[in-house]
Amino acid sequence: MRICFPVQEAKGLESNLDMNIMTAKAFLIVDTQTNEIKVIPRGGLNPVAPLEKEMFEFVVVMSIGKMAVQKFNEKRKRVYKCHGMTVAKNVDMMKRHQLQEIRPEQCT
Q1: Cβ-contact 91, 3 below 8 angstroms
Q2: pLDDT tens per residue across span 84-104
Q3: What is the predicted pLDDT for the residue at 108?
Q4: pTM of the entire structure?
Q5: Cα gap 83→4, rounded to integer Å
Q6: For residue 44, what pLDDT band results from cuts at 50, 70 and 90?
Q7: Is 50 among the domain residues?
Q8: In angstroms, what CA-CA distances link 22 with 1, 17, 98?
Q9: pLDDT at 15
Q10: What is the rounded distance in angstroms from the CA atom of residue 5 to the CA atom of residue 108?
């Protein structure tokens, strides 16, 4: 499974998630089968634009708006609420199916 995380600073699995996907300094895409980690720098005017070219199935975030969830869902990418600050903790919880999916109607 390939999971995307918005992070404050790219430090591998020890990276801390950013509070909001739109303010993230970078994105990490973690492949849980190969343990490969890819760093994607944020875009300029549209911080998430570089993600459009990337292959991943899930996004794990602290905070996200309704329209962003809808856009990810339209591209068949499911959005989950993080639990804890580090990428490592959330990868582990995602593997155990312990994170809650965020639906557009749950957002403000």
Answers
A1: yes
A2: 899 999 999 999 999 999 999
A3: 66
A4: 0.94
A5: 15
A6: confident
A7: yes
A8: 23, 12, 24
A9: 97
A10: 21
> What range defines the domain where residue 95 resides?
2-55+66-106
In a domain, 61, yes or no: no
**29 close to 4: Cβ distance less than 8 angstroms:** yes
Residue 27 lies in a domain: yes
In a domain, 31, yes or no: yes
Instruction: Specify the residue for token string 């970078």.
Output: 26
* CATH number of the domain enclosing 44: 3.30.420.130
Give the separation between CA 64 and CA 19, rounded to whole angstroms. 9
Rounded Cα–Cα distance for residues 26 and 39 (Å): 7
Q: Is the model more confident about 76 or about 107?
A: 76
- The domain tally of the chain equals 1
- CB 72, CB 49: distance < 8 Å: no
Strand order in the sheet with 100-101: 37-41, 26-31, 2-7, 58-61, 78-81, 100-101
